[in-house]
Amino acid sequence: MVQEKKLVQDVSGWLRVYDDGSVDRTWTGPPEVKFMAEPVSPHDQFIDGIATRDVTIDQNSGLRARIYLPEEENPKFPIILHFHGGGFCISQADWFMYYQFYTRLAKSIPAIVVSVYLRPAPENKLPAACDDGYAALLWLKSLSKGESNEPWLNTHGDFNRVFLIGDSSGGNVVHEVATRSGFIDLNPLRLAGAIPIHPGFVRAQRSKSELEQPESPFLTLDMVDKFLALALPKGCTKDHPITCPMGSFAPPIETLNLPPLMYCVAEKDMIKDTEMEYYELLKKGNKDVELFISTEMGHSFYLNKTAIDTDPVTAAQTSELIEGIKVFINKH
Predict the structure, then answer these.
(1) Separation between Cα atoms, residue 165 and residue 264, nearest integer Å
(2) What residues are paired with 24 via a beta bridge?
(3) Distance between CA 196 and CA 82 in Å, rounded?
(4) What element of type H or E holds 180?
(5) Lower Cβ count inside 10 Å, N or C end of the chain?
(6) For residue 159, is it within any domain?
(7) CA distances from 144 to 148, 184, 286 (A)
(8) Nearest to 97 by CA among 213, 217, 214
(9) In 3D, which of 72, 61, 188 has the Cα closest to residue 116?
(10) Beta bridge mates, 164
(11) H or E segment to which residue 24 belongs
């Protein structure tokens, strides 16, 4: 007799975990937003000014990345190393929501974007995603030294202008990778800047904004609590240094050798209060940080293609965010 597996965790339509340890990431929420979580196939030929390809970074681990190459004539492009969001538990580098934004960003700057396929929790608990992000940076270093080769990057990439960028939990990965990189010699690669966008910085204790700001499909209290419980090492709370770099378990900010930061916050983000705590910590530690606030917007609004296409305010704020990133990268 086959015993039926039992559901032990269900997270806001995004993910279900069963008692046998299996995980189902089939979207079960409103069908009209399902397309944003659909994979987009890579295309070596240029479509709307961008070509994409998937490459394997590490043959042993199978770690992969998606590369976006602009068609524009340019001797060398800055390189943006991207870490996707999803509470460490869901989403992939090839999802449409990232494709629509990062093709646009790559074309607007122009820059090469390298988006890492981060291993998801709960199968791979933290610091797995951070390890993957760091491995991708070390891979770029190996390319810059000529120890390995990736034609698009070696031909078109400027390894003297490498930037980290991450959405939501990917912003946490940005902080962690930037922190680790400060303790090693990256030469001849230069980490020119870091851009955490609406990072998942929280505390075990609820913040005022968590209690007062509206939920969205991209962030609910259910997602904050359950995703992080699934992702964090056994026995850890949200006060863990990866999710709370401003907490007492994290290393003092003044001991970190961080690159210049463009720190992006949305005015109506549910976790805005704890995100701002991190910003204040950076300022107190005399770090080079620029604050960029998107007014009237919620968490990861710029990934919502439907809102961009139907709401002029979201469209305008998305354009402003892209322009802000472009100015920051051109400055560094």
Answers:
(1) 10
(2) 16
(3) 10
(4) helix 169-181
(5) N
(6) yes
(7) 8, 15, 30
(8) 217
(9) 61
(10) 81, 194
(11) strand 23-24
Q: What is the C-alpha to C-alpha distance for residues 284 and 286, in angstroms, rounded to an integer?
A: 5
Is residue 136 within 8 Å of 114, Cβ to Cβ? yes
Q: What is the DSSP string of 183-236?
A: TS--TT--EEEEEEES-----SSPPHHHHHSPPBTTB-HHHHHHHHHHHSPTT-
Query: pTM higher than 0.85 for the full model?
Result: yes
Helix, strand, coil tally for the chain in percent (to 5): 35, 20, 45
**Site of tokens 């806001």:** 12
Per the domain annotation, does 3 fall within a domain?
Answer: no
Give phi and psi for 265, each to the nearest 5: -130, 145
Q: Which residue has tokens 């610091």?
A: 127
Q: 319: closest CA among 329, 308, 330? A: 308
In a domain, residue 2? The reply is no
Tell me the C-alpha distance between 245 and 290, whole Å: 18
Structural domain count of the chain: 1
Residues 147-190: tens digit of each pLDDT: 999 999 999 999 999 999 999 999 999 999 999 999 999 999 99
Tell me if residue 268 falls in helix, strand or coil. Answer: coil
State the Cα angle at 203 between 201 and 205, rounded to 5°: 150
- Helix, strand or coil for residue 78? strand
Query: Does residue 19 lie in a domain region?
Result: no
Q: Give the gyration radius of the chain's Cα atoms.
A: 19
DSSP β-ladder status, 77-83 and 64-70: unpaired
Please say whether the dihedral angle defined by the alpha carbons of residues 128, 300, 17 and 222, taken in this order, is positive or negative: positive
CA–CA separation, 327 vs 285, rounded Å? 24
- 195-222 pLDDT, tens digit each: 999 999 999 999 999 999 999 878 999 9
